[in-house]
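Exam prep: given the inputs below (a chain plus iron/sulfur cluster), describe the expected output before reading on.
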Amino acid sequence: MPADAASLVIVNTCGFIDAAKEESISALLDAVEYAHARGARVAAVGCLIERYREELAAELPEVDLWCGLDWEPLLAELREAAGREGSRPGGPGSAAKLSAVTVAVPRRARPVSSYVKISDGCDRRCAYCAIPLIKGEYEPVAAAEVLRAARAALAAGARELVLVGQDTSRWAQPGWGGLERLLAELRALEPAPLWLRLLYLQPDGVDDALLTALARHAVPYVDIPLQHASAAVLRRMGRSGDGEAYLELLGRVRAALPGAAVRSTFIAGFPGETDDDADELLAFVRAAGLGAAGVFAYDAQQGTPAADMPGQVPPELAFERAAQLGEAIDEAASAFWAGLAGRSVDVLVERGTSRADGVSVGRCALQAPDIDGRVMLSGRPSRRGDLVRAVVTGSVGYDLEAVAGGPGS
Ligand code: SF4
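Solution:
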């Protein structure tokens, strides 16, 4: 439905870090201007609202509805609107009431990949992180619900399922089993997903049993947020491990999943981080052979222990260290992707072949949707959702170039 025809515009917000908060507020202001000019209402939902509802409601009285993580007020509004539609002469019957509500949602093509949430919240309490304050304690999603969501995604056309949660490696349901069984049951669904991918594996949760389960059922892709390599910084963060232990962990990952791509996340400029700590992290990323990593300059979050720690690093220095770290990761990751030249890969096509240049765009199993690089595929026309065997002919940074064909095509 075009946004022009909407009676309600919903803005989903994020309150994780300051940049996300600013972007959310800017999107809300844009939505208010746009929607009110057309007589529509604006609902603000999501974790920024959960955390700062009162302050935001005082600052932005133009927003019509505040929902946080509890969508009940929004659903009530939708039901009420549906009721108004349904009671109009000629209005839709009750079975179709909700579908009659004019809500602006972005148009999306049939999904190639779908995210399936397997848990929410976290009780690790890393010193810098506001997520437990927003989302609360860790709670696994029941196996039946995960499978229901997966079936719905596959029925809608998804060929890849991406399992997410703040702490996915600990998923288990008492009396039912753990991740091994969940992954096996997801692979056995009809239609079967081509690829299963698990994001956000906390390093201390990556044990041999999990690696065996991933080798059996998932793509060779491991997303482990390490955050730092200096033991001193990691302890202040409230996290375990150090650079040496992490290199050993990555060795076990590669032994179980040969050729796996490893993605991680790092924070530069955490309180008390010295020049030596920053250098240790740089040396670690140069040795770790990562395929990709997110880098954040430390950004104090209200209500977290780290915000009041001594030794706060000046923001300019944190940004400088983050930029240096980002460059080191770009360099190491470029070498990882360049090393794939000549290899055969399966490419899941996300944008079918363009008539103009004869190139389609997709990903190989080593690239996660939305965050990693892409494969530029030529040599044969393909459509969105196709899985095409191809040979990698080159790379540009995090992106690959490949030509359809080769063994198994
Ligand atoms: S494990 Fe992740 S979500 Fe949980 S507290 Fe630490 S950083 Fe936050």
